[in-house]
Amino acid sequence: MGIDEYGGGQGPHPDVLVVTTNDVPGYEVRQVIGEVFGLTVRSRHLGSQIGAGLKSMIGGELKGLTKTLVQTRNQAMERLVEQAKARGANAVLMFRFDVTEAADVGTEVCAYGTAVVIGPRA
């Protein structure tokens, strides 16, 4: 699995395993810390808005907006992991994203889940 008894996962967040599932096969939840989240709000860039408007008339992927959304989601996830680590977690279960419009000026992205301490099943 790539996570030792007290942390040390693999991937972009080696200290905190982040999964969308309720549990991790072969591991047990030893402590539930609680909800953690990472939030960011991004304003729309005028150039990408104009480009998106033109592109939407002829069809196709809005690559500039896609890139911005990926960066925004990554930033929200980084903040979630930082919060989980600060609270002593080595895993986040039930990880999700929520994306909403923020007062017609940008996009709010919230990454959230349940921070826990997991260890190998006895």
Automatic annotation (TrEMBL):
InterPro entries: UPF0145_dom_sf, UPF0145_YbjQ-like. It comes from the Bacteria. Transmembrane segments: none annotated. It holds the Pfam family YbjQ_1. Belongs to the UPF0145 family. HAMAP family: UPF0145 (MF_00338). This is UPF0145 protein SVTN_16975.
